[in-house]
Amino acid sequence: MNDFFSNPVLVKALPEAIIETLQMVGISAFFTVLVGLPLGVFLHVSAPGGLRPMPVINRILSDIVVNITRSIPFAILMVALIPLARALTGTSLGPVAASVSLSIGTIPFFARLVETCLRDVHHGKIDAAQVMGSTNMQVISKVLLRESLPPLVAAATTTVVTLVGYSAMAGLVGGGGLGKLAYNYGFQRFDVSVMIVTIVLIVVLVQVIQLVGERISRSLDHR
Amino acid sequence: MITVTDLRKVYQQGKKEVVALDGVTLSVPKGSIHGIIGHSGAGKSTLVRCLTLLDRPTSGSVSIDGTELSSVRDSEIRAARRRIGMVFQHANLMDSRTAAGNVAHPLELVKTPKDKTRTRVAELLKLVGLEGFENAYPSQLSGGQRQRVGIARALASEPEVLLCDEPTSALDPATTNEILDLIQELTSRLQLTVLIITHEMNVVKRVCNSVSLLSRGRIIEHGALEDVAGELDSQLARALLPLPPSFPLPGPLQRGPVLEIVFSGDSAKEPVLTGVARHFDMDINVLAGSVETLGGQQFGHLRVQLAENSDVDGVLGYLTDRGISARRVAPVAGAAPEFPDTLPDPDLPDPVVPNQGLHPTKEQGRHE
Questions:
Q1: Partner residue opposite A131 with nearest CB, options B79, B81, B97
Q2: Is A70 helix (H, G, I), strand (E, B) or coil?
Q3: Helix, strand or coil for residue A142?
């Protein structure tokens, strides 16, 4: 126990690493939802048989953009996107730069989850809304999104948990955070206590995210 | 008043054309309930989708009080839809909204002021007998209560026409009757024009003023309930007044001719059977019968057997003179189907045997 508190890495570098991880997860979660939610809605609505079928654009977005992005392993995508991160944020180091590739990595993932959630909304509800004179936007906002809010929150939770995992990977190529800490000190310096502490922290972080997400999802669910 | 004229809907299925509606014409006056009955595949769902403008008909027209709906421009389609309130089989309520929230949904769409919405919602929930359930979510309501919310929601935009698509098919018999009574009460109170699409003859019997039989995209029989019920030959009459299967009784009557008789309206009040018995001095056995009140009139459908060697033509004449439809049928008869599956095939002999019903008929074969 004494070992932990006298370990300079844990005392000095750990708080900073925690903040960096939270920053990466926070920023990229924000952008993932910001872009992924509308993208998922669009994928659903423009699909054949959807509210406003647009077969060509749907095909391009669904098959090419989303599937290709999702099929590239994140470790590779992350490295490949370093130039883009530099162009957007002015640097390739630090949590903000890492958030660029993190967001791009998880946006298609989240969009697919959103699409699946919306597909589960019973078609009769959409018929009912249209018969009462809803515009397409009203169907999206008042039926599709509102009726699938509990599963959407669950999908966002899953996405954020994935982001925690990705953020540890992003740490290795300059993102910082707990991943970098564990690699630099735990692995390269054989500091077992650092390794244990980071693992425990990441497990706790994931548990907290999962718990909060489930609570919110359940409180919204009236089915 | 809703008028549907020569409505056709043709779907393109690959290279094949599927005719879902083949010239449907019907008209329902204000304040009355019209039932459209038919098997699955008869075109009921397509008719609903065309009436609500969820699908555009290929040709023909739908108009409400003289205003044409089927040809409105896309920009006006939403306003046109609001003139028709729709009740669904499974209510199709929003699970995330309370009962009050669901009823308020159509009002929100046209940005009704909050206080006005609140009073209107309270009014509507009271109208359907759901006072005090404002804050209940659909999952906390019973099937019948959910359907009541669905009806209140359908009425929120003050439509002239209420279209009910299998409104009771997911409900138990007691709840079915409650919902049907509610629809009937609302029809007369709000002077609605109601169309009920259903496959249950009970629904038609209980609330409809008139009925159409839809088969393969066409209306093959239609009319006021009291008119179709009195027609011995119509498929609807057989479904409205079904007779249980029966067999000739043993004994001296065994070989006598069998008649089917439909009494309707006033003639149902006369003691015709005993009249026949006295007039022709013969014995009559009742093999099967059903009595119903349809469209406010009493109807009776009987299958009777006369004594052997009796004057069948004389009896038929006697009954016809008194405005009762009667005809001779095969001695063995199965139960009438709820309503017939298909159109009668013109190539097959009529199941009604005109002279001596000794050869097996199609009806008989089914029950052997």
A1: B81
A2: helix
A3: helix
B181 and B198 assigned to the same domain: yes
Number of domains chain B is built from: 2
Q: Are residues B46 and B9 in the same domain?
A: yes
**Domains, chain A, ordered by start:** 2-220 (1.10.3720.10)
Q: Which chain B residue has the Cα nearest residue A133?
A: B78
Give the CATH number of the domain where residue B261 resides. Answer: 3.30.70.260
* Three-class DSSP labels, A11-65: HHHHHHHHHHHHHHHHHHHHHHHHHHHHHHHHHHHCCCCCCCCCHHHHHHHHHHH
Q: Domain holding B175: CATH number?
A: 3.40.50.300
From first to last of its 223 residues, what are the pLDDT tens digits of chain A?
Answer: 556 667 777 778 888 889 999 999 999 999 999 999 999 999 999 998 888 999 999 999 888 878 888 888 888 888 888 899 889 888 888 888 899 999 999 999 999 999 999 999 999 999 999 999 899 999 999 999 999 999 999 999 999 999 999 998 888 877 888 888 888 887 888 888 888 888 999 999 999 999 999 999 999 998 8
Domain span including residue B248: 236-366
Residues B312 and B356 both lie in one domain: yes
**Same-domain check for residues B224 and B257:** no
CB contact under 8 A, A132 and B90: no
B109 neighbourhood in chain A, CB within 8 Å: 132-135, 138, 142
Which residues of chain B have a CB within 8 Å of the CB of A128?
86, 88, 92-93, 153
Looking at chain B, the whole-number percentage of residues with pLDDT higher than 70 is: 86
Q: What is the dihedral of CA A205, A206, A212, A213, to 10 degrees?
A: 150
